[in-house]
Amino acid sequence: MAWDVEGTKHRIYQAALAEFAAHGPDGTTIDRIARRAQVNRERVYNYYGDKTALFATIVRGEVDALAAAVPLDITGPDDVGEFAGRAYDYQRAHPDLARLVLWEGLADTGAIPDELARTTLYADKAAAIAAAQRAGRIDATLDPAHLMFLVMSLASYWSAAPQIARMLTGSPGGPGGSGDDPDDGAEAARRRAAVVHAARRLATP
What we know:
10 helices
């Protein structure tokens, strides 16, 4: 029987995603990832390299998946708002991404393995903001890279810091008065509406 290379790589990827999101790169091991994927640890090294390389691959894969799922095309402030709303939706469905980025930040020593490629990805988004600003489609007060960072933060921090979201929105009878469960459709809709509104306001001249 032929070895299912792609299937094995997928199992390793998913196991590493779960381990890194839960424990960070320093809180897990190749052995744990291999056990979760039900493969020999040598398979992990053969397909992905060491733990540092594997972590970089997982982060880049998840960032690229978000970029593919939520493209940025700006004709006006509403597009900036909807981009933030779609990014919020995606990260609500894939909360591991925000956790990975936080772990990456905690482990940052001034550079990451694929920083040049990641920088290009983010620079392209800032360039789209800059082009819309030059065309007068959105407000040009903020530096385009700063505006992009703020919009990304609006969309992602709900997933990155769910405990703060819980404390702010409150439990039934608390400050929010509507429950703190992010799986509550009504509360999720309110959060999304706030993200869209804030991003739109940032982009409105």
